[in-house]
Amino acid sequence: MLHGLSGRALRFVLAAAVTALPALVTTSPAAAQARAAGFAASCPAAGFISDPYGGARNHDGIDIANDYDTPIYAVGDGEVINSGPAQGYGQWIRILHPDGTVTEYGHMRQRDVAVGDRVTAGQRIALMGAEGEASGPHLHLRVRRDTSMNRGIDPIPYLEERGVSMPCTPGRRPAPAPLVYPVEPGRVVSARSADGRLEIFAAGADGVHHAWQTQVNGSWSEWERLGGPGNAQLAIAPNADGRLEAFAVNGDTVQHRYQLSPSGAWSNWEEFGTGGSTVAAGVNADGRIEVFASGPNGVFHRYQTAPNSGWSGWEPTGGGPAAGRVKMEKAPDGRLEVFVLNGSVFQHQYQTAVNGGWSQWEDFGGGGHDLTVDHNADGRLEVFASGPVGVFHRYQTNPTSWSEWEPTRGPADSRLTSDRTADGRVEVFAINGDTAAHIWQKGLNAAYSDWDGFGAGGSGITAATNADGRIEVFGTSRDGVIHKWQTGFSTWSQWARVNSTSGPPIT
What we know:
Cell_wall_metabolism_enzyme; signal; 507 residues; mainly beta; metalloendopeptidase activity; five-stranded antiparallel sheet; globular; Dup_hybrid_motif; seven-stranded antiparallel sheet; 3 helices
């Protein structure tokens, strides 16, 4: 969370954050040609997308909201063709790129470049402001296919084609295509469909229940009962073609179901194996889903033999903690890493090469209650584990070395989840029977705040990120499923039902 926002900036964010993003569009021939001609883009600015392209106002660009003096960066290499006052904008900058496209930046408080300057991708060109027709500090980013166009194209797919997924974390080097990081597994899981809408699955005694956002960043459908294993542990992952696939395990069975098309309807449940304790799913660098499940004889895995295709049989992993809780993350180079914890043992293993085989299991600490794994803005993994005296964490000091365990205090014997804020900082959420609390990094790759109250106790918790970068948290208890979401950079809604009913009770 970005603390210290001015009142004017916060009012602007709160007013704008309820606007929904449009559905993702298919790649146009012009965009495909631009990719072939080629430049790798860089993130234009940190912040929330407070006003999308199009919509009821026919908005010609996107607005990225943040506080005054937030740096603005050139999307790509190019020549500055305008820099100065502009009607409506107050001030603007326009950059002509080698592929003929033009990016346009408006409302800045300070300009750092002049007409004729050559800029590089990720170079700072201005500071954010609210000059001209603006209700608060933000960057208006517009993209034109050439200098003759009167109307811009949608900046989001333009940036996606060039390797930047919005919202983004700025940097001076062109960003590679984003890695697909594993979704947090548990009794409740949430992931975004290909069109940007969050979907949620919750496992009750009578099977799995499902709800989904009826529009991007918007409100939720009613709960739909899907059947499937009762009192299951759940995992979810995207196929290479964008279709989500869900996995459910209890002591008797493992089953899965999948979208029949991206953002579309779902198949029926299909058998996927015999029972187990917990399950996690991740995506290899080549797009193949890989599933790990723990049971009384250790940890087993199963993987797609090709993207969007069939599956291997279940294979032993050479050990692993019996009946442990399984979590996965992805190293900066695309290798998956698996962490498994039970009451007495904590171990991990990792791919020895991208899309490749696995290491032997290695000790990672003593046992505990639950864990969550996330990645810093620089890609280093960070692990949190709870136990009877609170929450501890351990983090990579480089790609092959780890710190020692460090205490953070926090709720004892809590369920844990984590996600990243719009600017790339890790935020961790914990819940036990008495309380919920959260901590957050005070800067990119930095130390953490103290634990702060986040609500009453419950049985489980998971976090997901909306398409506009706002974190949404789902909590479970015997009273059902409730959620809480960011309304701005540092503000949260109250806990509320997901829809008009309570959803399945989860103990």
